[in-house]
Write a structure and sequence with these properties.
By secondary structure, the chain is α/β, with parallel strands linked by helices. Helix content is 40%, strand content 22%. It is built from 8 helices and 8 strands. It has an 8-stranded mixed sheet, sandwiched between helices. Helix 2 links the parallel strand 2 and strand 3. It starts with 6 loop residues before the first strand and ends with a helix.
Length: 188
């Protein structure tokens, strides 16, 4: 019998030497998801951080009880480790710099996915939202770093034949296979 997810959304927030952004990212993400009325957890995944990121997160634990901090064995492994520990129906993947600025559109993407409209949505350079169980094969073993993280992840999702809606930094969407390839060419 399949285990029922505990949360609507598991936010995966890989960090490494992001003490300036990680605390703001966790607070804003929690505020954003609470305002939408969705159940969630925030998995802050340490990718060998050498700064005060852990101290910043420790100060937030009382304010953000949904926060869990764990360690990944090296840079780029946070998404893989986070997906393995997630307990939500959906994975919402973002970096601290993006999550501290704005996750506009992520809530709408999560609502569409929870309603059964597709397997995933990728806003290139901003966030990726996917059904956890459907995306595990695409996420397992990945090493995702920096600005190319969402583009590489969306390619892996499409290889798994998942229905993925892709939009670029300006918000333009590509739903067809040809349109998605053009989006990669434009936003790569």
């Amino acid at each position: 019998m399949a285990e029922r997810p505990r949360f609507d959304i598991s936010v995966i927030l890989p960090f490494g030497d992001d003490e300036e952004a990680v605390g703001i990212a966790v607070k804003r993400t929690a505020e954003h998801l609470r305002s939408l009325g969705m159940s969630f957890e925030i998995l802050a995944i340490d990718e060998d951080s050498g700064d005060n990121s852990h101290a910043v997160l420790a100060l937030l634990r009382a304010e953000v009880p949904e926060l869990r901090v764990t360690h990944a064995p090296g840079r780029g492994r946070g998404v893989d480790i986070g997906a393995g520990r997630a307990q939500g129906t959906l994975l919402l993947i973002a970096t601290p710099d993006v999550a501290s600025a704005s996750l506009d559109g992520a809530g709408d993407a999560c609502r569409r996915l929870l309603a059964g409209d597709g397997d995933g949505e990728v806003a290139l350079g901003r966030y990726t939202a996917v059904h956890r169980m459907r995306a595990l094969a695409a996420v397992r073993g990945t090493r995702l770093l920096g600005a190319a993280m969402h583009r590489r992840l969306s390619k892996r999702l499409m290889v798994q034949r998942l229905t993925v809606r892709i939009s670029g930094p300006a918000g333009g969407a590509a739903n067809t296979a040809v349109g998605r390839l053009r989006a990669f060419a434009r936003f790569a």
